[in-house]
Amino acid sequence: MKMANKCCSASDQVTHMGWVNERLQGEDSPQLYTFKFLALKGSSFYIFSTPPVSTLDWIQAEKTYNLCEVLFKIHKLWLNNDCWLQANLYLGIHQDYELEDQRPYCFSVVVGHGKSHYFNVEQGSELAIWEKSFQRAIFLEVQRIGSKTFTCSWQGESLCFTLDFAVGFTCFDNKTKKILWRFKFSQLKGSSDDGKTRVKLLFQNTETKQIETKELEFQDLTAVLNCIHSFIAAKVASVDPSFIDSQFIARKYTYSN
Predict the structure, then answer these.
(1) Which of 33, 34, 84, 136 is the Cys-Cys partner for 21 at CB 3.0 to 4.6 Å?
(2) What is the mean pLDDT of residues 185-205?
(3) Where are the alpha helices (DSSP H) in the chain?
(4) From which residue to which does any coiled coil extend (predicted)?
(5) pLDDT tens digits, one per residue of 91-100
(6) According to the model, what pLDDT value does residue 25 have?
(7) How far lies 144's CA from each of 85, 148, 244, in Å?
(8) What are the residue ranges spanned by the domains of the chain?
(9) What is the rounded distance in angstroms from the CA atom of residue 65 to the CA atom of residue 40?
C-alpha cells in the first residue's frame, strides 16, 4: 500500500486494501464464496480478482464504485447471546437470516440500484479495520468534493438535487437554475421511500417549526440515499470527531469479547 501511494496524488491515496471472501450471487449457491481483493483508493471502492500491480490494473478492476454512493453494513459478529442482543438492538447490526451461514465476520457494501456485495473475513480485527477504513475513506471523499449533484424529477419537471457539505440540501430547476428550496442537514427529520425511484424528505422549518415534505424521483435512488448518509455522517464527524469512533461496531464488540 505504501508503494502504491508513492505514485498517487494526495487525493488518490489508498486508504486500505486486502483479501476477503465474496459470497456468490444466486439461489443455487447460497454458501459458496470466492476470493476477492478489495481496495479503497481516492474516490472509489474497487473489487479485483487479483491484487492490482500496474496503473492498467486499476482501470480494469472487476467493479468500481464511487465511495460517496456506497453504504458499509455489518451483518454478523461472533458474539455471545447477550452481547449479540445488545449489538443487534442498539447498534443496528444487520442479521439477515436469508444470508445466514456459519461464517462469523460478515459485511456487505450496498451499491447503486439496490444491489450489494456480501463479504466475509476470517478475524474480527479484519472486520474492524474494514469498518474503520470505509468510514474514513468516505469521510475524506466527502470533504474533498464538497458537494454532489443528482438529476431528478417531480411531477414532470426536470430538477437537480445538490448535497453540499457546507450548505446542506438544495433543489433547483434544471433549466432555469432557480433555487426551489434549501435546507440545512440539521433540518432533516426523517425520510421514506418506495424502494424504487421515489423518496420523501421531511424537513423542519426553522421559523414555523412545521414539517415540510419534499418528494423527488431519481433513476438510482439507492446511490442518492447512500450519498445523503455519507454527507450527513461526514458533517456530524466534522463537528464531533468522536462520532466516527462511536460508530465502530466491530471494533467495540470484537475487542471487548
Answers:
(1) 33
(2) 96
(3) 2-6, 55-59, 81-90, 124-145, 221-239, 242-246, 249-254
(4) none
(5) 343 445 444 5
(6) 78
(7) 38, 11, 17
(8) 1-84+103-144, 146-219
(9) 10
Contact between residue 65 and residue 45 where contact means Cβ atoms under 8 Å apart: yes
Name the strands in the sheet holding 33-41, side by side, starting at the edge strand that comes first in the sequence.
Answer: 63-66, 44-48, 33-41, 14-23, 116-121, 105-110, 71-76
List C-alpha distances in Å: 5 to 17, 42, 139: 12, 10, 19
Asked whether residue 39 carries a pLDDT value surpassing 90, the answer given is yes
In whole angstroms, give the CA distance from residue 121 to residue 134. Answer: 15
Q: Is 80 exposed, middle or buried (0-12, 13-18, 19+ CB in 10 A)?
A: exposed
Angle at 118 between CA 124 and CA 2, to 5 degrees: 60
| Selection from 73, 17, 13 nearest residue 43 by Cα | 13
- What is the distance between the alpha carbons of residues 203 and 214, in angstroms, rounded to a whole number? 8
Single out the residue of 109, 126, 120 nearest to residue 70, CA to CA.
109
The CATH number of the domain covering residues in 146-219: 2.30.29.30
pTM, two decimals, is 0.84
Strand partners, 37: 19, 48
Measure the CA–CA gap between 214 and 152, rounded to whole angstroms: 12
Domain 1-84+103-144 listed as CATH 2.30.29.30: yes
CA distance 244 to 233: 8
Strand boundaries in 67-115, DSSP class E: 71-76, 105-110
What pairing do the DSSP bridges indicate for beta strands 14-23 and 33-41? antiparallel
Residue in the structure block whose three cell numbers are 465474496: 22
